[in-house]
Amino acid sequence: MTVPEIAAPAGATPAESAPAESASAEVKPGTSVPARTAPTAGAGGSADSADPDGQALRPHAEDAFAAELAALAAADDRPRPARWRLSPWAVATYLLGGTLPDGTVITPKYVGPRRIVEVAVTTLATDRALLLLGVPGTAKTWVSEHLAAAVSGDSTLLVQGTAGTPEEAIRYGWNYAQLLAHGPSRAALVPSPVMRAMSEGMTARVEELTRIPADVQDSLITILSEKTLPVPELGEEVQAVRGFNLIATANDRDRGVNDLSSALRRRFNTVVLPLPADTEAEVDIVSRRVDQLGRSLDLPAAPDGMDEIRRVVTVFRELRDGVTADGRTKLKSPSGTLSTAEAISVVTGGLALAAHFGDGVLRPGDVAAGILGAVVRDPAADRVIWQEYVETVVREREGWKDFYRACREVSA
Ligand SMILES: Nc1ncnc2c1ncn2[C@@H]1O[C@H](COP(=O)(O)OP(=O)(O)OP(=O)(O)O)[C@@H](O)[C@H]1O
Ligand SMILES: [Mg+2]
Fold first, then answer.
1. How far apart, in whole angstroms, are the C-alpha atoms of residue 77 and residue 90?
2. How far is the CA of 136 from the centre of ligand 2 (A)?
3. How remote is the CA of residue 70 from the centroid of ligand 1, in Å?
4. Among 94, 142, 160, which is best to mutate for testing ligand 1, by the most ligand atoms less than 8 A from CB?
């Protein structure tokens, strides 16, 4: 058994260390967690966030998009499930983007089939939990965070799944100083993010569920089917209040590491997030995210970056699919995943190079090194695959001469 940090809930984030009386007020007697550890959860928003002056390198979704969430809440006159900040319709609009009657533009967070988002949102309003499944870089974590932010106003009730995740991270732990001094009591109990979500009717998140050892995963079964969490040491239980649900993410590639038991799988509605359907969709995703990231890193906007973004996406898609875009040439796929997320990093890295060492315009030379780094994960096999691609595809393609030269330079 691991010893949790004293007075800090398991998996605590900085947001949780600030005391807040209000959160415990709405909790039913007998189901509440100790007021001492009552989190800011439920208050959410930027007013009482852990990052009031906006200096966080990566603000939580509910802070970064607080204005959009507030505008949606104001415009939203549809019925809201118990303890939801927004109606399912407004949550879907928050994720997919749109324009409100008063002209407020909601930026799309997720670019993909509308139906997927609708199914995911409605699942959260049912008694089944939501499992987001997909290959790496398909925005599972991203969607899970934004869903929690829109539904509960708080995306921080998070358990990060690893091979070493203990049961306490999902159920509860103990403050050992308290436990030794006074014996088991409510005050000595350190609730997990899941336990807190249950008692406050919030959305909990479990990242990388299939990396968690099978016996620890199974502690979710009672929580999801009975909606209670027994605390035998105290002869009590925590009952989930309305509004509680759970979003888990799992990676396709990890399948087989720790398969989900069928008992647990039945408690989830699985939504598979696909890779972007075509080049245009992927270029759209990459350019949006690069723009957002660039702004938070204070990189100058690259007015003519679209050509390079399209090129990075084309290279990634061709190598990932094992065939050129025109379908004529078969290619070998490298060992790396070459996901949209990696394309975003390559372009962001390229923009930084262009901003600091170039003239601010994204050019082939700025992305070539990044692409090489993403493609060549295995120095022997991947390098051969890359060189073959450069010599047979890049070299022959119209308008790709500069890029070909840049690739030759960085591989030399
Ligand atoms: N369809 C999409 N719409 C919007 N953003 C996307 C999409 N696909 C990928 N992204 C972007 O890719 C980045 C990585 O996504 P994320 O980390 O959520 O992937 P993941 O599926 O959780 O990957 P992993 O399996 O490695 O954990 C995010 O910044 C996200 O914005
Ligand atoms: Mg993830």
1. 9
2. 7
3. 24
4. 142
Structure confidence at residue 185 (pLDDT): 93
Of the candidates 389, 398, 397, the residue with the CA atom closest to the CA atom of residue 408: 389
Mean pLDDT of the region 181-191: 94
Per cent of the chain over pLDDT 70 is: 85
How are the residues of the chain apportioned to helix, strand and coil, as percentages rounded to the nearest 5?
45, 10, 40
Residue 299 DSSP symbol: P
Query: With helix as H, strand as E and coil as C, how does 339-399 read?
Result: CHHHHHHHHHHHHHHHHHHCCCCCCHHHHHHHHHHHHCCCCCHHHHHHHHHHHHHHCCCCC
Contact predicate 140/134, CB 8 Å: yes
φ/ψ of residue 372, rounded to 5: -55, -45
The SS3 call for residue 201 is: coil
**Which amino acid is located at 85 in the chain?**
R
Residues 6 or more apart in contact with residue 140 via CB below 8 angstroms? 132, 133, 134, 249, 250, 251, 273
DSSP one-letter code for 209: G
Element holding 70 (H helix, E strand): helix 66-75
Instruction: Label residue 333 exposed, middle or buried (CB < 10 Å: 0-12, 13-18, 19+).
Output: middle
Q: Helical H runs in 132-218?
A: 140-152, 167-170, 176-182, 193-200, 214-217
Span 71-108, pLDDT tens digits: 999 999 999 999 999 999 999 999 999 999 999 999 99
For the stretch 24-79, pLDDT in tens is 333 333 444 443 333 333 334 444 556 667 678 889 999 999 999 999 999 999 99
Residue closest by Cα to atom 23 of ligand 1: 137
Specify the pLDDT at position 209: 94
**Pairwise CA distance, residues 325 & 334, whole Å:** 17
| Residue closest to 406 by CA, chosen among 394, 396, 388, 393 | 394
